[in-house]
Amino acid sequence: MYLGHFRVKNGQMTPKTHRFGHFNGLNSPPRQLTWSPQGAARQLEILDRATLFKRIPRALLTQPERLDFQLVIVCYSGAGEHAVDGVTVPVGQGVVLHIQPGQIHQWAGGATYGAWLILAYQLPLVPVSRTVGPRVRHVSQGALRTTSSLVKLIGQPPARAEDRLAAERAVADLLAITLRLTAPDPLPAGPYAALYLALRNDVATWPDVRLNLSQRAARLGCSSRTLTRACLAISGRTAKQETDALLALEARRLLAVPALSVTQIATALGFSEATNFTKFVRRTTGAPPATWRRRA
To answer: What SS3 class is residue 156?
Structure first.
């Protein structure tokens, strides 16, 4: 498993990575995390939360981090909390928290709960969407016992690489079913639900302030008035408010990557000047970028 933060060289952003346990004098927390499986056939990695906290300084782990892989936290004992996209989730026995690529998450410094951590770029049976906020499941004691058996099984892989790959795929499928990750999240109901979700997906895919509401509506095959009716019916916010909220979330996610300057983030989101980006963040979140960066 690798940790890394972005470095900028010749105008290009590339991940600078460090393997767990080998920090080599990092000057800043590696808050953009990248996972690289161990071995050619590795598609899945499972480790205990206590092991993670033993390998990495707590002060480093408790910084907000943006993932480029899937992380599933399965709590089997104790209690604590975990933050995803700024939302704090109570964690206790039987709680399963699924964090998806691109999201910001943060370990609580004082929590001591026991949990298995499942890491993978792809869990074949699990529907992955551009989720905003936590994806939480609650499972039974029986499911935790099954998960414990699967964790032990994955810790004793077959010798042949081909067999290891097949075993990991089978275990990944069984874990997804046992932990209730295969069921999609509840979707909003009503005649406007599909259009509302289409707008959220469009903004998540193209987080660019240069696309105004009329342009986004045209991309979705409707008028801006219809788009606003859809958002008001589902969320109680206008389409402009919904769009701004998603753009503000993406800004906060990017601000969690320390090697990206405010100017680079502003450019990435389509702002012509960093000052306009600062005004937008202040208006939509109640605080300037520097405040969110300090929190990161």
So the answer is: coil
Token digits for 49?
């939360």
Q: Across the 296 residues of the chain, what is the mean pLDDT of every consecutive 10-residue run?
A: 32 32 26 58 83 82 82 96 89 95 84 91 77 86 96 83 85 94 83 92 91 95 96 94 93 84 93 95 92 68
Sign of the alpha-carbon dihedral angle for 268, 235, 198, 227:
negative
Strands of 12-19's sheet in order across: 12-19, 2-9, 32-33, 65-67, 104-107, 79-84, 87-92
Q: How far apart are CA 92 and CA 109, in angstroms?
A: 16
Whether 270 and 208 have beta carbons less than 8 Å apart is answered as yes
DSSP 61-74: HTS-EEESSEEEEE
> 90 has which bridge partners?
81
Helix (H) or strand (E) holding 293: helix 289-295
d(CA 106, CA 71): 12
Helix orientation angle between 239-255 and 224-234, rounded to the nearest 10 degrees? 70
| Sole residue written with tokens 């910084």 | 63
Closest to 113 (Cα-Cα) out of 152, 61, 74:
74
Can you tell me the distance from the alpha carbon of 85 to that of 102, in angstroms, rounded to the nearest whole number? 10
Could you give the angle at which helices 239-255 and 274-285 cross, rounded to 10 degrees?
110
pTM of the model: 0.74
Q: Considering only CA atoms, which of 65, 50, 64, 59 is closest in space to residue 2?
A: 65
Cβ atoms of 199 and 230 within 8 Å: the answer is yes
